[in-house]
Amino acid sequence: MGKVVLGVTVGVAVAVCAVAALVVGRRVRSRKKWKRVVGVLKELEESCETTVGRLRQVVDAMAVEMHAGLASEGGSKLKMLLTFVDNLPSGSEKGIFYALDLGGTNFRVLRVELGGQRSELDPDVEQQPIPEQLMTGRSEDLFDFIASSLHRFVEKGNDSVQSSIMKELGFTFSFPVKQTSVSSGVLIKWTKAFAIKDMVGKEVAGALQQALDRKGLNMRVAVLVNDTVGTLALGHYHDADTVAAVIIGTGTNACYWERTDAIIKCQGLLTTSGGMVVNMEWGNFWSSHLPRTSYDIDLDAESPNPNDQGFEKMISGMYLGDIVRRVILRMSEESDVFGPVSSRLYVPFALRTPAMAAMHEDDSPELTKVAKILEDVLDISGVPLKVRKLVVKICDVVTRRAARLAAAGIVGILKKIGRDGSGGITGGRSRSDIKMRRTAVAVEGSLYTQYTMFREYLHEALHEILGEDIARHVVINVTEDGSGTGAALLAASHSSSGSVDNIQLV
Ligand code: BGC
Fold first, then answer.
1. 60, 86, 101, 227: which is the annotated catalytic residue?
2. Which of 86, 90, 108, 388 is catalytic?
3. What is the pTM of this model?
4. Minimal CA–CA distance to 423: which of 21, 150, 23, 63?
């Protein structure tokens, strides 16, 4: 009996020990896996580091590249494109003008009535998504689609489609274009999700004009502008201190007002105002000071345009979600904290930036939105709270870097035009010698307007780089539909009736 009891006791003890060993073993293993995941996060944080020192290097690099791009054709990855916009709307424009805005995920048609006095503009706007197949098909199909939308829009409104009075149109085309005049230019390359091969090297406004003619619309493309240029026009219309405009949406870019004598690659360029808006195409900016990760390298290599648009791929809405997806995939492959590796994690662009922003800004204590998005979008379910917190942290690191780099880009422009309080690119004067003028920058794009954390990080970085004394002279103004409304304004100020007064910026 005693032996039996002893045997049972020993058996139980052995079983308990085995279970305990199993539990401890599992804990040790899971701690190791957790450590690995934390290691991946740490590595990400380190390679995304944007100290003020590093941001200042990016500022300097941006200003130097701007000079190089203005000095010679191909002198820099920054194209610094001439826009032939040598005056900005003054407020005295009158009449009815239309605009078409093509470039992001959505396409807009606008009609603006201008009363000749600087006033609140209240354009009629219609927006629709561009069918995906049109972004990669034939140019004629895309332009016919645009012309049909405009035709329907005009029909619905008060103007007659076949009116004997020709209407003037501003065309916002948000891709790199080598302009030959304010109303003509050829497409250099596509960016973002567009890739219509037969259009590269072709005259853009001409292609639209032909489509309008095919539809029997009595309209003339009066100006062909980049979205940044439209935004600058509207920004300047509302605030005459506006010197630059930045778009941070699906793609990113900036333009600014430059003195013609600084545009060395185009010697002899004369404008009545002495200046011209330059479309920087900053999405293609590159510098060794940019904090690049292995995820950026892979994203670039797998993109349809490798070695192109490097700055854009770190900043804009088209890419941020995909960087986060890549980090989660790596974590998921290195440990099972996300459960078995979800096949959705291998799908490029499965996680879009709006979903990423929603996870980042989830303020519920249990991070329920994060759980839902992981499940709905990436097919990852049942992850514990600490893993959901990890996801929020990844979003934070990726967005913070993007916003701070965009801020450095803005200060780079201010430095180039001597508005950063440092005495310009050649320096020399001390900060206290310089009287800072009020300087406004117009900003548009969903990343900036709809992603609070992005916006806050950008402002914080502007203040850190410039210092409070200078930063209080720099105003960021958000414009609404500036890319389109600004194009209508520019169509008015470059209207063939030519009856408006133009103003100089400097
Ligand atoms: C284009 C620019 C455009 C920007 C914002 C970039 O991908 O190259 O021309 O201004 O996106 O839409």
1. 227
2. 108
3. 0.91
4. 63
